[in-house]
Amino acid sequence: MKKMIAILMSIVLLTVLLAGCTAGSSASSGASSGGSKNIEGKTEDILKRVYEGIDKSIQLPHLEYIVLSEDMGSNGVGAPIEYYLGVKGLPFSEGTVSEAAIGAVPYSVCLIRLNAGADVEKVKNDIKSNANPAKWICVAADTVIVDNNGDLVILIMTNESSLPGAAKAIQDSFKKLT
After folding, report:
1. In what helix (H) or strand (E) does residue 57 lie, and over which residues does it extend?
2. Among 14, 40, 82, 128, who pairs with 146 as Cys (CB 3.0-4.6 Å)?
3. Helix, strand, coil percentages for the chain (3-state, nearest 5)
4. Gap between the Cα atoms of 32 and 108, Å rounded
């Protein structure tokens, strides 16, 4: 009888421990990190919604949009993915970058949608550690922000003297999306 009670107590304890571990791991490593619901739509459309949400007094440069893919530049034409995100091999399914059409303004906003189950915090840390705010000729960004909203990760690189308040306004608009 004592043996049966000990086995039952062990099963209950193990069940409680496993339930606690499962709840903790899904909140910290899943693509929905931050408790945000995933936002529907293509990354280019979402990025345009981000811009619509910023104060009109912030004058962004004329922007060009580029579709991001892991094999960018592999054919010898165009810049590789590392030019935009600082690193290759990220687990993303689609992405868009908007950059200043004139290279004299250090401005780049990259938005990627992570694959299901991707570790959001690891991706953010990889981008933050490897993004190059001096990737342009003769100019550099002095503000680098990496953030997420659900399964979307955004990299914002700007220069406060050229575009005061732009980086924070973009981040705030991005975080308000639902």
Report:
1. none
2. 128
3. 35, 20, 45
4. 24
The model carries a pTM of 0.79
What pLDDT is recorded for position 75? 85
What separation in angstroms does the CA of 70 have from each of 85, 121, 147, 152, 155? 10, 20, 20, 16, 16
The tally of CA atoms less than 13 A away on the side-chain side of residue 92 is: 29
| Token representation of residue 49 | 């919604």
pLDDT for 108-154, tens place per residue?
999 999 999 999 999 999 999 999 999 998 899 999 999 999 999 99
Between the two ends of the chain, the Cα-to-Cα distance in Å is 56
Residue type for 137, please? I
Q: Residue 94: beta bridge partners?
A: 113
Distance CA 89, CA 77 (A): 19
Residues 6+ apart with CB under 8 A from 107: 60, 61, 63, 99, 100, 141, 157, 158, 159, 162, 163, 166
Long-range contacts formed by 75-81: CB under 8 A, 24+ apart: none
Characterize 38-58 residue by residue with b for buried, 16 or more Cβ atoms within 10 angstroms of its Cβ, and e for exposed: ebeeebbebbbebbeebeeee
